[in-house]
Design brief:
Number of helices: 11
Number of domains: 1
CATH superfamily: Aldolase class I
Helix content: 40-55%
Number of strands: 8
Strand content: 15-25%
Strand order of the largest sheet: 1-2-3-4-5-6-7-8
Bound molecules: pyridoxine-5'-phosphate
Largest sheet: 8 strands, parallel, barrel
C-alpha cells in the first residue's frame, strides 16, 4: 500500500522587492511584476507584510495586488489600524505576527497567552470578514492550545531559532518544530512554518510531514539577484517538494 503525502506548498514573501524600491523612493522594481514572476516559478501564494512603519510594502501594494487578482497572504500585527486595513481590503489569508519598530525583521512568534484578548478580537474581526487567519507562534504546545481556542484556522511555526542555531542545538530546535507540527495536526490545525529558511536549511523542515506550507522571503529574493526571481523560486520549490 502506498502512503499519499500531501505536497508542501510554498508561499513566497516579496517584501524585499519593495525594500529595494523604498530605499530610493523609486517606482521600480514592481511588486506586482515580482508577484507574477514568483507564481511562474511555482509559488503557491504571495506573502506580504504591511508593517506599521511601512518600511517596505505600502498600502497601495496591497490594493494593487488584490486588484490584479493575486491570492495574498497578508502579514500584519493585531493592531486596530492593521486589522481595519485587512477587513477593508479582504486578502484571502491574514497571518498575525508580533511587531516591534526597532527590529530588523520579525523576531519571534506572537505571545498568545499575554495578548490573548487583543488577538481574540483581531481573529474575530478578520474571520467575520471571510479572511482565513493564521497565527505566527513559537513551536510550543501552549501556543498551539491557545491558537485552537482562539479559533484560528492555521498556525505558522517560527523557524527562526532553528535557522540561527548551529550543530546540536539545531537538531533540538528541529525537534521542537516537529513535535509542535505533529501536535497541531492532531488538534485539527493546518500547520505552516517560516522565517529564516534558506536553500540549505530548508530540507530538514520540508521533511516534516505535518507541515502544509512554508513561507520564505529573504533567501529567495537574495538568490534572485543572481539567477532571477522565477529561477530562484523554482529552485526552492524543487527543494520543498518531498
Ligand atoms: N513568516 C513570517 C510570519 C514572517 O514574518 C516572515 C518575514 O516577514 C517570513 C515568514 C519570511 O521570513 P524570511 O524573509 O526570513 O524568509
Amino acid at each position: 500500500m502506498s502512503i499519499k503525502i500531501k505536497p508542501l506548498l510554498l508561499g513566497v514573501n516579496i517584501d524585499h522587492v519593495a525594500t529595494l524600491r523604498q530605499v530610493r523612493r523609486s517606482v521600480y522594481p514592481s511588486v506586482s511584476q515580482a508577484a507574477m514572476e514568483v507564481l511562474k516559478g511555482g509559488a503557491d501564494y504571495i506573502t506580504i507584510h504591511l508593517r506599521e512603519d511601512r518600511r517596505h510594502i505600502q498600502d497601495f501594494d496591497l490594493v494593487d495586488l488584490l486588484k490584479k487578482g493575486f491570492d495574498v497572504n497578508l502579514e500584519i500585527c493585531p493592531s486596530e489600524e492593521m486589522v481595519d486595513i485587512a477587513v477593508n481590503n479582504k486578502p484571502k489569508f491574514c497571518c498575525l505576527v508580533p511587531e516591534k519598530r526597532e527590529e530588523l525583521t520579525t523576531e519571534g512568534g506572537l505571545d498568545l497567552i499575554n495578548n490573548y484578548n487583543q488577538v481574540e478580537s483581531a481573529v474575530a474581526s478578520l474571520s467575520n470578514a471571510g479572511i482565513s487567519v493564521s497565527l505566527f507562534i513559537e513551536p510550543r504546545k501552549e501556543f498551539i492550545n491557545a491558537a485552537k481556542s482562539l479559533k484560528a484556522t492555521y498556525v505558522e511555526l517560527h523557524t527562526g531559532n532553528y535557522a540561527n542555531a548551529t550543530n546540536d542545538s539545531q537538531s533540538i530546535e528541529l525537534l521542537k518544530i516537529k513535535e509542535a507540527a505533529d501536535y497541531g495536526r492532531r488538534n485539527q490545525l493546518i500547520v505552516n512554518a517560516g522565517h529564516g529558511l534558506d536553500y540549505a536549511n530548508v530540507l530538514s523542515i520540508a521533511r516534516l510531514i505535518s507541515l502544509s506550507e512554508l513561507n520564505i522571503g529573504h533567501a529567495i529574493v537574495s538568490r534572485a539577484v543572481t539567477v532571477g526571481l522565477q529561477t530562484a523560486v523554482a529552485e526552492m520549490k524543487t527543494l520543498v517538494e518531498r
